[in-house]
Here is the input.
Amino acid sequence: MTDNVAELSALRAREFPWEVRGDAIHFDHASVGPLPQCARDALDAYGLKRAEPHRLGMDDFFPVLDRARSLAGQLIGASAGEIALTTNTSWGVNLAAYTLPLGPGDIVLGSRGEFPANVYPWMAAAKARGFTFEMLPLAGTAADEELILRRIAEDERVKCVALSWVSFWSGARIDLARIGAACRAAEVWFAVDAIQGLGPLTLDVRTMPVDFVSCGAQKWLCSPWGSGFVYVRGELIPQLEPPAAGWLAQASSGDFGRFLDYDPAWHTDARKFEVGTIPYQDIVGMNESLALFLRLGPKQIESHVRALTTRIIEWTHKRRGVKLLTPEAAASRAGIVALATNDLDGDSKKLRAAKVTHSVREGAIRLSPHFHNTMEEVEVVLGALG
Ligand SMILES: Cc1ncc(COP(=O)(O)O)c(C=O)c1O
Here is the structure.
């Protein structure tokens, strides 16, 4: 994408016209991703039908969800049957914490520095189910991979590792392949919170040894709040008992003429984890955004984001008073660059004055550009910081 400026300009004009007008420079995908025009159009069209339900047809219900599972599956190399739709990342984390066969005597390894959505579910499940949730110290601004690998190798009570792919505050990325391989070798489950990774990074679960991947779509997948999904590795699905029941997790509920037969058999695929009605309108929006990602090419998006973030990192070498919290190596970061500056408030104010959307987390300015941002915008952002 970087190498095709005309294509990027056309994409921005079509999908993010407010950017072309100069309303804002959005470098805050780690908080919330903008909805592309194609998603807005789909939401508007669906909103009309939702307001006047006589316009809704059968294609506006289950086929919307089928398409979402299929698109999310395509994005990460999973089958649609390995995808359960969720309304956020937290539900996917809870699924792992409550369905994996864990109990007294077992240890789940986590890390300090994690976003609470990947901590509290494990704490609560540990209390309810009797396992131990062990939070390992950080190595600098990243999870301590050496220590994690050591703990996996040395202690056979370790049964699961639960980590974020990318840190929400430092932008540090863990080596999924390395930790996943160690987990597989030791028969330890690997549950990943992917919300800060998927989009700026690509994932193929056919080659990546992961068991659960939870991902809200509201940030880097530029989708409505209330949309997201969890991947559950196919072989695990039959072994896991859903922690909650409603009606749509049961295969029998597909037949609207026979609800009262009450057949409680779960769906045989990941739909068994979906419980009840999913917010169709949000999923309609997510479908368009995911389809856009797939059209643009996830690998191209990854290299575009890498080029933008690399430029920011190079700039930090020359700018006084800025400490980079994000690891420099491209393989150890994703779309977030975290800058601890001497004057956080002042620098944040300068960015706001230049209409740069960003956030401040854990003592650093967090910049998080994406596929529709340009190198020119990076220069404006860096210029604003001085
Ligand atoms: C690593 C991580 N996990 C989860 C979330 C959000 O969780 P949810 O999608 O459940 O709101 C965030 C949001 O900032 C995050 O950074």
User: Anything to note?
Assistant: Residues 88-90, 115, 117-118, 164, 168, 193, 195-196, 216 surround pyridoxal-5'-phosphate (CB under 6 Å). The chain has a mean pLDDT of 97. The chain has two domains: 5-31+297-385, 53-294.
